Amino acid sequence: MKWWSADPTLIDESFDDLPLLTPYAYRYYLPAFLLRALEPFDPDNLVTQFCLFNLSGDAHDDWYRERIKQFMPDERAVITAFLQYIRDDARFDRFHADAASALRDVWLADTAI
Fold it and tell me: Which of 13, 45, 101, 108 has the most Cβ atoms closer than 10 angstroms to its Cβ?
């Protein structure tokens, strides 16, 4: 299945499967999850919540580092924009600290992962 043809219902039903994907599958399918996270872009959308939590991992954890180091600069820019959108949207106030931490410690960190 091509990530861009993933059925939205499949993504909705698989919202909590991101941690189970291999690093290759994670990079391949994350765009489908991020797009679905925007429809609707709402703090109660479980896809949005799990995308945030999966992008907020521990940068010192080897498994997490293996998953995120494969993203190219343009892909990292999209992920950064997604996290900034959550951090800056007042509706997501309960997630602002998670998004800010992910940006600071992982996606915008001075040291490359």
Answer: 45
